[in-house]
Amino acid sequence: MKKILVNGNVKGSILKTEMPINFLGTVDKKTGIISDKNHQLFEKSIKDSILLFPSGIGSSVGAYTIYSIKSNNSSPIAMICKKADLTVATGCALANIPLVIISDEEFSSLENGQKISIDTKSENVITKI
Fold it and tell me: Among all residues, which ones are annotated catalytic?
């Protein structure tokens, strides 16, 4: 089961976390680096990655943070989640970052560092390269 919330066509490497992301409090808007010491991706950059995470958490202002990250050229090239929350969906729509919602099984089958392509107009949507 895949649900496309924001269309796009990209190729890249997965940056995966099992932890939800609070974009407002966790991601540096200028660099795209995770600044929360308690987060699994602490000190890692989301820039130019295909960010794979369970869901977003926190304030709706996080949507503007996603837009700011994109404006600063520090955003992921796409996002993949298990749960469509309003903050991530709105932020990706504003910033034109492809967003795909996948099942638990699909989430488990994708690995950190794995190269994939996302083509929301394709039947398969996500293809391992």
Answer: 59
Q: What is the pLDDT of residues 40-65, one digit of tens each?
A: 999 999 999 999 999 999 888 999 99
Q: How far is CA 44 from CA 49, 89, 107, in A?
A: 11, 22, 20
- Amino acid type, 80: I
Buried b (16+ CB within 10 A) or exposed e, 52-67: bbbebbbeeebbbbbb
> How many structural domains are present in the chain?
1
Domain that holds residue 86: 2-128
**Which residues on neighbouring strands pair with residue 100, listed in sequence order?**
4, 80
The domain that holds 77 is classified in CATH as 3.50.30.10
Q: Does pTM top 0.90 for this prediction? A: yes
Are 115 and 128 in contact by the 8 Å Cβ rule? The answer is yes
